[in-house]
Amino acid sequence: MSMGASSHHVRCVNCPLGHLSHFRRFSADELEFLTNFKTGELTADTGATIIVEGSHSAHLYTVLSGSAYRYKMLEDGRRQIMNFVFPGDIIGLQGSVMGEMQHSVEVLSPIRLCVFERNRLMHLYETHSSLAFDLTWLAAREEQILDENLLNIGRRNALERAAYLIANLFLRAKAVELVKGNRLSVPITQLHLADTLGLSVVHTNRTLKRLADRKLVRWRDRGCEVHDVEGLLLLAQWDGLPEGPGRPYL
Amino acid sequence: MSMGASSHHVRCVNCPLGHLSHFRRFSADELEFLTNFKTGELTADTGATIIVEGSHSAHLYTVLSGSAYRYKMLEDGRRQIMNFVFPGDIIGLQGSVMGEMQHSVEVLSPIRLCVFERNRLMHLYETHSSLAFDLTWLAAREEQILDENLLNIGRRNALERAAYLIANLFLRAKAVELVKGNRLSVPITQLHLADTLGLSVVHTNRTLKRLADRKLVRWRDRGCEVHDVEGLLLLAQWDGLPEGPGRPYL
DNA sequence: CGTCTTTTTGACCATTTTCAATCAGTGTGG
DNA sequence: CCACACTGATTGAAAATGGTCAAAAAGACG
Question: What's the Å distance between residue B224 CA and nucleotide D11 C1'?
Answer without folding.
Answer: 20
